[in-house]
Amino acid sequence: MMYDVSLSLQHADFSHEYPHALERLEHVLEIFDAHAGHEDNFLFPLLESCDPALQEDMEKEHVTDIALSNELRSLMTSFKSAASTDEKRALGSKICYTYYEFIAFNLIHLNKEEIVVNGSLWKHYEDEEIIKANMSMIATLTPEEVKRNAIWMMRGCSNPDIIGWLGMVKRQAPEQVLKLLLSIAEEELPSQRFEAVQNAVMEMV
């Protein structure tokens, strides 16, 4: 999603009215705020109990992330009130460069979550405890959030990742959830990939 919005910003003509790319950027910032909130509420309490120093470090990184988000929001607010074409173009460039910093920071941050944070959680907790925390988080999502997340997961994941994900859904969730995700997969994946995913999932027991 970050990469996709980056291309939208690069293609945007900032000399005119508020570009659609900036609306998409606002959406990304909202999603990342929600992502951090979910971690703060459901993941970091586990981390605090087993590795408080790491939890504190990750909280500090969230502060940096919020600062970058707020800077982008401030720039977009300034863009809305900019009167001249030159001012709009200058602010557009500044938004792009700040967003690149946001992407660079978050890629490193997300890598750390995947490698360091997950490693600590796997070391100190049983799978069932982590799954319980994850399910508690999922229960707070609206249907719109679930669908949005699923769309981007389909766009971003490999076939084996999607098959493993949908296989878990098939085993643990109501049938209508699997049907919804397969319908999203059909919309988002090339036909050959969708057929491979669907066949593999349907063969699972």
Structure report:
The protein has 205 residues and is mainly alpha-helical. It has two domains: 2-131; 143-202, no CATH class. It has helices at residues 2-11, 20-50, 52-81, 85-124, 127-138, 143-156, 159-172, 175-188, 191-202. Helix 6 (143-156) crosses helix 8 and helix 8 (175-188) runs antiparallel to helix 9 (191-202). The longest helix has 40 residues, at 85-124. The chain is globular and about 60 Å long. The protein starts with a helix and ends with a helix. The model has no long low-confidence stretch (mean pLDDT 94).
Topology:
Blueprint (H helix, E strand, L loop, with lengths): L1 H10 L8 H31 L1 H30 L3 H40 L2 H12 L4 H14 L2 H14 L2 H14 L2 H12 L3
Provide a brief overview of the structure.
With 205 residues, the chain is mainly α.
